[in-house]
Amino acid sequence: MKNVTDSFVSLGYWPFAGSFGFNTDILATNPINLTVVLGVLIFFGKGVLSDLLDNRKQRILNTIRNSEELRGGAIEQLEKARARLRKVEMEANEFRVNGYSEIEREKLNLINSTYKTLEQLENYKNETIHFEQQSAINEVRQQVFQQALEGALGTLTSCLNNELHLRTISANIGMFGTMKEIID
């Protein structure tokens, strides 16, 4: 510091050249100017520079703190989203499994009901065939009976005369009389 004050004191001892001009002696002029400028800046700018640096430091610390809080919130939201995703995936798998089993169950129910319907139709068909067979058999019986009756009546009327007719009636009355005596 003594050199700096000596340079200011020594300014008063320099002789004036008598005219204005440039001092081209770099070693004599620049260190003095730099010393003066730096001294003024340090003396007056020390507080301002310190305040600026403190403000900048506080802003950086606040930004870091906010970033950490946001990071923590983002991590928390990410974990919640992952938990929801796992839950939704489990539910989707459950729906998928239940859906497949429900489809299989419905398929089996449909197959079973189709088999039952086919069995009922087969039974109805068999009953209808049996009914039609019985109707045909009854109709044939009636026709055969009718033809047999007509044939018997035709034979009886052609073979029977009055005398044979009276003997048959007498024989039948006699049989009834014998039967009545046996029963009594």
TrEMBL record:
Location (main, coarse): membrane
Transmembrane feature ranges: 32-49
Entry GO terms, CC: chloroplast thylakoid membrane; proton-transporting ATP synthase complex
GO molecular function, one term: proton-transporting ATP synthase activity, rotational mechanism
UniProt superkingdom: Eukaryota
UniProt keyword Ribosomal protein, yes or no: no
Note: In plastids the F-type ATPase is also known as CF(1)CF(0).
Subunit structure comment from the entry: F-type ATPases have 2 components, F(1) - the catalytic core - and F(0) - the membrane proton channel. F(1) has five subunits: alpha(3), beta(3), gamma(1), delta(1), epsilon(1). F(0) has four main subunits: a(1), b(1), b'(1) and c(10-14). The alpha and beta chains form an alternating ring which encloses part of the gamma chain. F(1) is attached to F(0) by a central stalk formed by the gamma and epsilon chains, while a peripheral stalk is formed by the delta, b and b' chains.
Annotated function: F(1)F(0) ATP synthase produces ATP from ADP in the presence of a proton or sodium gradient. F-type ATPases consist of two structural domains, F(1) containing the extramembraneous catalytic core and F(0) containing the membrane proton channel, linked together by a central stalk and a peripheral stalk. During catalysis, ATP synthesis in the catalytic domain of F(1) is coupled via a rotary mechanism of the central stalk subunits to proton translocation.
Protein name in the entry: ATP synthase subunit b, chloroplastic
